[in-house]
Design a protein that fits this description.
By secondary structure, the chain is an all-beta fold. It contains no helices and six strands. A hairpin with a 5-residue loop joins strand 5 and strand 6. The two termini are 33 Å apart.
Length: 87
């Protein structure tokens, strides 16, 4: 419980209280990729799609931000395109 009491220079006081919960449980995140079939050592046969699943008891989708990058086998950036949606 958080309690706040304040007084201004005129002597007026106000109080407020609220319950503060600290979530110490980390979220569970799972990444699933489609299409593991390689056309050769460098390219996949078809478009590869990814799905991210996030499980959290207190997840607030209005504050969720997802940033990601794609790198090749050597670690070089492949794309800066972002196409994501919260479901």
């Amino acid at each position: 419980m958080v309690n706040l009491h304040t007084t201004d220079f005129s002597g007026r006081t106000v109080s407020a209280s609220n319950i503060l919960v600290v979530d110490k449980t980390p979220p569970k995140i799972q990444l699933t990729l489609s299409n593991d079939s390689l056309a050769n050592e460098k390219y996949f046969r078809e478009v590869r799609k990814g799905q991210i699943e996030i499980e959290d008891a207190h997840l607030d989708f209005s504050s969720l931000q997802v940033d990601f990058s794609v790198k090749d086998k050597a670690g070089n950036p492949v794309s800066t395109a972002r196409n994501h949606a919260a479901c």
